[in-house]
Recover the amino acids of this structure.
């Protein structure tokens, strides 16, 4: 077997001729802005369901600036009126292609709660205004772009396209839907972090290659007639699978029609799909949809540190587009003083969609690149008071962690590097992160550097020095961690560690806080109604919360997001972590609204509004001994009179700060 050719670096292309127009202050959103840049047309028009914020934390800004750096003229249509094709003609006909995304979140997760109620606001919209994007936005936007200019190629991407790239269970319609590529009628789907494929695609289209001939890009999906196979003379060896005997090998997933009709087939398809997620050994996946085949090339090769630095070092304006005026955009307010230091996650939590989108291999920026961005925030971002709100990513403390042996990494087919135990081949050193923290807080003008991303505590306990550094300098009173549950049944289905690691970390955290002379608290996150969770499991969790004096405020009910392993469990009642058959393990699933409400109520056992439901459930479970007015009881036997609504709102607000262990703020994470 020959070693695969190294991928072509992002900076290894000759810039397109339009580079002579220079850098736009903001990527144009109107013809007037195009005129100011001297453009007669856009080469690429990006359509997004989010407000346009020119910052690398927002996908369309990152993609747009990356393509601009390649010399292309890039325009953005943000949150278009999708009721007709008129708004999609705003910037005229693009020379090369439309790039379509729903935004930083799946549009259904963005709009609906886990209980399928419409959210009252949208954090990615000016003034949090709801209703500015359609349901299934990728499909709707792609169809409207095609209506606007029927001969322009349409390319879909972003997290909604990534998570819907094969036949998938859709929680909101309660059906198994076809690949979004079929319904959107797009020409090509780019999944995952698609910088490498996107740059290659743009340059090939610019050279005149028809999009239907571009079939060898890693991280791409497309529709072909049955029996189609790629030619052996693919365009670029750096983008195809490998120089070995597996170049034309593929795995055929159960057909769409089969997984729609047969839950066992769906669960087995989920298992096969997740086993083909390592870029080092993943094979092509093929899934029949009607009379055509969906073809998925292997995942993209992760970016190198130099490429990550290039992407995050592009000339972002680091602000919302001026057209929004003084409007507040909550997502921007939340991240404006934070730094993304890495991407990817090797945790493999079954309910989380980060791995399906970003992959398990950690891609880290260099220390110098991160420090430069802190200086840019200090010097250019209005309102900066000297506090960096986060140095993080999907997980706060996976920076520069990797397999000790690249050959082992390339051959590995584990779904998690840390479950059931931390792999002995994983380098868990926190040294680089400790050095980064120290240099960041030493920068002139920086008063404090906080860590806002969730911490992987089973990794942190391996580095007492890191815990001391974190607690002494980088915790603003509260630190987020995510045990998710206390009981082995649900934890096994989540692929999360047991409470032993939590207890060890808690002792280390409290000792380090005491040594630093600080009063600080852990904020643990928990999930109700996850597959594999029984009412008894939730009761035991509630008793644990009471023993530890936790009164959680915002809590999470399991939300089945497309493509996640736990979603496969929820839909099928089977366990895709093992080989699936009719006789294989059955998984307890909470589907009914009343039982989901009950499991959520156990997390908020202290809320009087939940007491009637909990009393009824405890009696049915034979645990009426937990009803009473003593310390050992979970809920009291008496029910207070409900206060007037205005007083109730004041009481709920005050309740966020009542617990001696600190508030338990929780949002429904959706993708992670």
């Amino acid at each position: 077997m020959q070693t695969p050719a190294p991928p072509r670096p992002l900076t290894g292309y000759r810039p397109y001729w339009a580079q002579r127009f220079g850098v736009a202050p903001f990527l144009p959103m109107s013809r007037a802005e195009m005129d100011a840049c001297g453009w007669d047309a856009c080469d690429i028009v990006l359509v997004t369901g989010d407000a346009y914020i020119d910052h690398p934390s927002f996908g369309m800004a990152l993609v747009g600036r990356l393509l601009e750096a390649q010399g292309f003229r890039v325009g953005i249509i943000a949150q278009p009126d999708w009721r007709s094709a008129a708004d999609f003609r705003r910037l005229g006909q693009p020379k090369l292609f439309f790039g379509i995304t729903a935004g930083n979140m799946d549009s259904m997760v963005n709009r609906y709660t886990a209980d399928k109620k419409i959210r009252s606001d949208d954090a990615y919209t000016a003034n949090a205004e709801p209703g500015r994007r359609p349901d299934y936005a990728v499909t709707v936007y792609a169809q409207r772009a095609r209506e606007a200019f029927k001969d322009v190629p349409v390319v879909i991407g972003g997290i909604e396209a990534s998570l819907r790239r094969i036949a998938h269970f859709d929680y909101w319609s309660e059906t198994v839907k076809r690949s979004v590529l079929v319904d959107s009628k797009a020409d090509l789907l780019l999944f995952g972090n698609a910088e490498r494929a996107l740059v290659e695609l743009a340059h090939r289209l610019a050279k005149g290659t028809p999009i239907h001939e571009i079939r060898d890009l890693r991280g791409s999906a497309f529709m072909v007639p049955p029996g189609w196979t790629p030619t052996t003379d693919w365009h670029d060896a750096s983008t195809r699978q490998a120089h070995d005997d597996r170049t034309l090998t593929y795995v055929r997933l159960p057909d769409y029609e089969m997984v729609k009709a047969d839950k066992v087939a769906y669960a087995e398809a989920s298992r096969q799909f997740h086993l083909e997620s390592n870029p080092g050994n993943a094979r092509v996946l093929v899934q029949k949809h009607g009379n055509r085949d969906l073809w998925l090339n292997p995942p993209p090769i992760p970016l190198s540190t130099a490429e990550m630095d290039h992407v995050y070092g592009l000339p972002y304006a680091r602000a919302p587009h001026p057209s929004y005026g003084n409007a507040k955009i909550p997502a921007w307010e939340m991240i404006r003083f934070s730094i993304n230091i890495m991407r990817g996650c090797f945790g493999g939590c079954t309910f989380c969609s980060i791995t399906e989108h970003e992959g398990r291999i950690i891609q880290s920026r260099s220390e110098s690149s991160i420090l430069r961005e802190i200086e840019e925030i200090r010097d250019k971002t209005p309102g900066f008071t000297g506090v960096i709100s986060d140095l993080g990513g999907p997980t706060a403390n996976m920076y520069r962690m990797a397999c000790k042996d690249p050959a082992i990494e390339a051959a590995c087919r584990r779904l998690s590097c840390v479950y059931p135990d931390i792999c002995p081949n994983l380098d868990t050193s926190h040294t680089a992160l400790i050095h980064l923290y120290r240099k960041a807080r030493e920068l002139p003008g920086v008063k404090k550097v906080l860590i806002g991303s969730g911490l992987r505590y089973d990794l942190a306990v391996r580095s007492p020095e890191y815990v001391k550094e974190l607690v002494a300098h980088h915790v603003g009173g509260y630190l987020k961690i995510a045990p998710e549950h206390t009981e082995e049944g649900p934890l096994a289905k989540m692929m999360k560690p047991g409470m032993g690691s939590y207890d060890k970390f808690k002792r280390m955290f409290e000792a380090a806080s005491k040594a630093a002379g600080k009063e600080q608290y852990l904020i643990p996150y928990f999930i109700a109604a996850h597959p594999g969770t029984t009412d008894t499991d939730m009761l035991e969790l509630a008793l644990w919360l009471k023993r530890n004096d936790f009164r959680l405020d915002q809590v999470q009910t399991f939300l089945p997001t497309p493509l996640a392993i736990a979603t496969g469990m929820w839909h099928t009642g089977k366990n895709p972590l093992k080989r699936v058959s009719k006789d294989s393990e059955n998984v307890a699933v909470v589907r009914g609204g009343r039982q989901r409400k009950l499991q959520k109520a156990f997390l908020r056992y202290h809320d009087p509004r939940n007491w009637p439901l909990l009393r009824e459930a405890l009696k049915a479970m034979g645990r009426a001994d937990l009803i009473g007015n003593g310390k050992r009881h979970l809920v009291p036997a008496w029910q207070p009179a409900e206060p007037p609504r205005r007083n109730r709102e004041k009481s709920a607000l005050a309740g966020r700060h009542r617990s001696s262990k600190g508030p338990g703020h929780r949002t429904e994470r959706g993708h992670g």
Notes: The two ends are 37 Å apart (CA to CA).
